[in-house]
């Protein structure tokens, strides 16, 4: 059997009152639990960590969508039927909680923690040696992220390195939240205006970077045989900012086709370095029997939990579009019945 190592970098951005700019989290005082619950959805098909003491296992959100995490879970079950073994590596970056993996349906799970600011050390001590082991063993890997608020810092970086006009709304379309986010970005820009365009200045300042960005920068500057990054804007930012400092031999970035529906995302994608292979998924969610999945095609959710990369991996390893959609439908069917 072939191994797929799914690596998720879980974090919450350093934004006060984060619930005021993001729709992705669990609300005031609960935002740190969202990445952990994503990991539980991916591994188990349901969330186990309680919210204010209440058990809420469902992947269905308030607006009728299902989370990307449950779709990743469905894809992994389809890949396992095709002969793959799935090993989940969960990196809790600055998060105090640990995923409750009761009911895990994957083959292996490894969980690591670090305090905020210790991301580079954790990468060097744990993930980088593991990636080298995987390469020697001929195992595949995808490095995804599950974060809240990180798009704010990705936007800051992409504005600094590419174009001041770039705008990425992240998880929300709420006008009030977008206005708060815009003011926050203006403040961050003013704070960093005196700095040189040196990625090290930004990654060393915990007020101008996100834990996922800092972890990715450490990976990119390491002489790894390959690095497969799964995600959209959150992955564009460190790859573009680290251009010229990247030591990875084979670099790829995989994401959903919907990421490129945005003009600003297309600008960022076109600015990826020449040594970065950029691939998007092809499957159409319009073939799903459930509106909660078909809504993805309307732009309600763009990316999350490395969904696009998992779709690409499934497409590249023999799953037909129908098999992919069937796997997504099976993952959510009993929640939507």
TrEMBL record:
GO terms for molecular function: nicotinate-nucleotide-dimethylbenzimidazole phosphoribosyltransferase activity. InterPro entries: Nict_dMeBzImd_PRibTrfase_arc, Nict_dMeBzImd_PRibTrfase_sf. This is Uncharacterized protein.
């Amino acid at each position: 059997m072939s191994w797929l190592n799914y690596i998720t970098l879980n974090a919450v951005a350093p934004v006060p009152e984060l619930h005021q700019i993001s729709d992705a989290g669990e609300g005031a005082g609960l935002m740190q639990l969202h990445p952990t619950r994503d990991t539980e959805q991916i591994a188990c098909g349901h969330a186990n960590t309680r919210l204010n003491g209440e058990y809420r296992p469902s992947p269905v959100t308030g607006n009728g969508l299902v989370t990307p995490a449950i779709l990743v879970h469905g894809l992994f079950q389809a890949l396992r039927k095709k002969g793959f073994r799935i090993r989940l590596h969960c990196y809790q970056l600055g998060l105090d909680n640990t995923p409750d993996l009761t009911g895990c349906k994957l083959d292996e799970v490894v969980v690591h923690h670090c305090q905020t600011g210790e991301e580079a050390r954790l990468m060097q001590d744990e993930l980088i040696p593991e990636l080298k082991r995987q390469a020697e063993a001929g195992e595949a890997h995808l490095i995804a992220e599950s974060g809240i608020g990180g798009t704010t810092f990705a936007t800051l970086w992409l504005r600094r390195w590419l174009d001041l006009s770039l705008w990425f709304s992240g998880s929300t379309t709420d006008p009030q939240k977008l206005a708060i986010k815009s003011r926050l970005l203006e403040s961050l820009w003013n704070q960093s205006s005196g700095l040189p365009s040196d990625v090290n200045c930004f990654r060393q300042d915990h007020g101008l970077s996100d834990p996922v960005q800092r972890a990715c920068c450490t990976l990119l500057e390491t002489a790894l045989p390959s690095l497969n990054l799964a995600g959209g804007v959150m992955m564009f930012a460190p790859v573009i900012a680290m251009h010229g400092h990247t030591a990875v031999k084979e670099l790829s970035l995989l994401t959903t086709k919907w990421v490129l529906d945005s003009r600003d995302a297309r600008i960022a994608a076109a600015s990826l370095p020449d040594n970065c292979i950029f691939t998007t998924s092809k499957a159409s969610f319009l073939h799903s029997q459930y509106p909660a999945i078909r809504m993805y095609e309307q732009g309600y959710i763009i990316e999350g939990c490395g969904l696009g990369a998992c779709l690409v991996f499934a497409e590249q390893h023999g799953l037909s579009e129908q098999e992919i959609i069937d796997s997504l439908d099976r993952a959510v069917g009993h929640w939507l019945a």
